[in-house]
Amino acid sequence: MANLNTEFLGIKSPNPFWLASAPPTDKEYNVVRAFEAGWGGVVWKTVGEDPHVVNVYGPRYSALLNGDRRVIGFNNIELISDRPLQTNLDEIKRVKRAWPDRAMIVSIMVPCEEDSWKKILPRVEDTGCDGIELNFGCPHGMSERGMGASVGQVPEYVEMVARWCKTYTRLPVIVKLTPNITDVRHPARAAKNGGADAVSLINTINSIMGVDLGTMTMVPSVGKQGSHGGYCGTAVKPIALNMVAEIARDMQTAGLPISGIGGISTWRDAAEFIAMGCGTVQVCTAAMVYGFRIIEDLCDGLSNFMDEQGYASVEDMVGRALPSITGWSNLNMNHIEKAVINQDSCIQCGRCHVVCEDTSHQAITATKDGKRHFEINEAECVGCNLCVSICPVPNTITMRTLKPGEIDLRSGKPVPGEYANWTVHPNNPMSSTCAAATV
Amino acid sequence: MQIDSSTPGVHPARLPRAHYEQNFCDSHAALNLAQARIEADRCYYCFEAPCQTACPTGIDIPGFIRRIADDNIRGSAHAILSANPLGGMCARVCPTEVLCEQACVRNAGEEKPVEIGLLQRYATDRFFEMPGAPLFTRAAPTGRKVAVVGAGPAGLACAHGLARLGHAVVLLDANPKPGGLNEYGLATYKTTNGFAQKEVDWLLSIGGIEVRNNTRLGVDVQLDVLVREYDAVFLGLGLAGVNAIGIEEPKAAGLRNAVEFIAELRQARAYAEVPVGRNVVVVGGGMTAVDAAVQSKKLGAETVTMVYRRGAAEMSASGYEQDWAQKNGVHVRHWATPKALLAKNGRITGIEFGYTRADGGSLVETGERFTLDADVVMKAIGQNFVAQPLGSALELRQGRIVTDDEGRTSNAKVWAGGDCRLGGRDLTVEAVEHGKVAARSIHEALGA
Questions:
Q1: B298 and B349, same domain (yes or no)
Q2: Is the ipTM of this complex over 0.95?
Q3: Predicted model pTM
Q4: Of A336, B102, B196, B301, most Cβ neighbours within 10 A?
């Protein structure tokens, strides 16, 4: 039985699954239910200074759905905790005492002034929690007040506040990063320079869900008007994965512990984030769509996977996929793939043909000997993987890698055996002057 | 003489060999990967899911379906088999249309429930293809010994539950092979390729269960001896008796019990070796009647008629099963009761029925009669519990063993479950639940 126990910044939890700072971690009632269900830890919904903020009373959320009404993406305009600070602190203390083996992180957002942080940190520390997370990510509501993402987008502020926190608390400090930024490495480096112990990312992405065309009103809207919100859920996972990987690979932040957030719904998603360098993962949307019980499936799936693959602990898996990431100019131009259509399982819908014909390289037939037939023409196929991506039948279109020496019908030449990338390509004007590309 | 469906009398090999393969392959094709993914995606992952509540063994259905979607087959199989160690067989034979699938919330909007039975089969089939490390292990030996009489679903489930808890089990069965009705009573098209035995083998692989076949209670072992020599006894005896049809039965070839025919077919080396009549009449309206009737047709009988004394709504065969019978060319006649069996030269030639109707609550005859030609008449009006091997040891009511919710009988050391027990629905899945609950009850009683 795989060991899911995790230690992140010295904080122990029985599994790497934490709930992210969000509506599911709003109150004692929610958090206790989460712990009863089996979650390894929570990041308490962001607390702030009194008087507390207020939220709109409908709606706060909306979703992007597929045809069978499955949630692909989710959007929220909810703010930080709308309850008095002391109420939150009392509950946090009580819950931590009742659940000592679970990770309790408190998310904090206060004005960008040293005094504000100096005042709140001891009060949070006194709850007995395991660590704090600095919310520099809210893209709505708080950024207009000089907090949230408006801090997260300015590396100097990130570093400054991180340093204050390290000065005024002995608790581990996690800086939560906003994705609404050009290069996430800058605030990550700033967090590290300020002494932060870890970063967590991503927070939500600026979004508008749609337009109600009947009323010509944005969706969601409160009455007749709406405001952009934070996007999350399955749709944002690739964005989050990339940002996590960038930070994990950056020389300045490599080795900095990361807690991964962004569309984690299944054990497989979690394993992927861990493979990209995360020591723990945080979930929100999936819990809001299905309820806390998903923790059973998350743990069971991850545990079976680890047993099957021989990973004794979560730590064994952290960052395992990072060496596979490189800059584009380092990719092997002599690696040639072609698509292959399995005629036994092909249902002849013809989508592969029409998308290749319209939008790619016209490498798939529609007929053969006068009959409806879909086959790859390797003389045109560039191995783009579009057909593989859109084919509705599992394992019907696959890619094959040409062997060294095999003739590539597209170029008419044999596939070279040796590795060669863009940096040495004759078309590259820089090729005579650079050796290996920097990332 | 060339034998075919129209040849009078009772003969094997009425069909070309290849037809048998086709007729007796899986009645419901298993899901492939693509279908399983689409179907798993349809599950809404309900709170306190109605399907789970409807399942007699309380399988975590949303959980196992989600794990199929998550590519966690081992986890899916574990969710199923920990609640129901015969979950593989149940997936094939359970009347899901009146249990979990009937409760599925997707019936409301689309009249199409999630295909829970087929998904359960998908998960267990995939798991059994590559089981990997054992799913269940035995707890430390408790030093206690339990005798389980009857290696059908109730007894197997009880034995497995006890073994998991560390008790030693001796599993006795009158037949040459374990499995009970799963092995001897189910229609072949419901479970092919020796699945019943494979499932039993997997279940027994937990260890600690000693199987003794060809051992009959009341003949080879006595109940009072078992009670003396073991710390507890579980009885999963099933229904060994067949109800008589209530009219004079001539000593003639061609008159038989439907369950015997079904067992003979299940154990036959080849379908072509099993004799079947040209005209077959099955008296009865339950699943046994349907299985006997449909399989007679699949063996090549020219006409097969099922006759039930009341109407379609009163038949204990589900609507689904009745459709299945008709789809397979069985004529189903209602509101008729057997009056006389006709025989000539020691062979059955026909059976006479009297029309019936409902008069208030009772069934009355109208006075009109009809006769059906028959080379074979099968009795399928229900089985009954044969209490004789128990002597007078246990309290019975309505011919079955009286127990409490945990399966405890009137004897403090004896538990009972499955069809032999009073008050159940005579379902495989319910027998499993009885066995499971009894194992836990025995464990608590033994104070181990």
A1: yes
A2: no
A3: 0.89
A4: B196
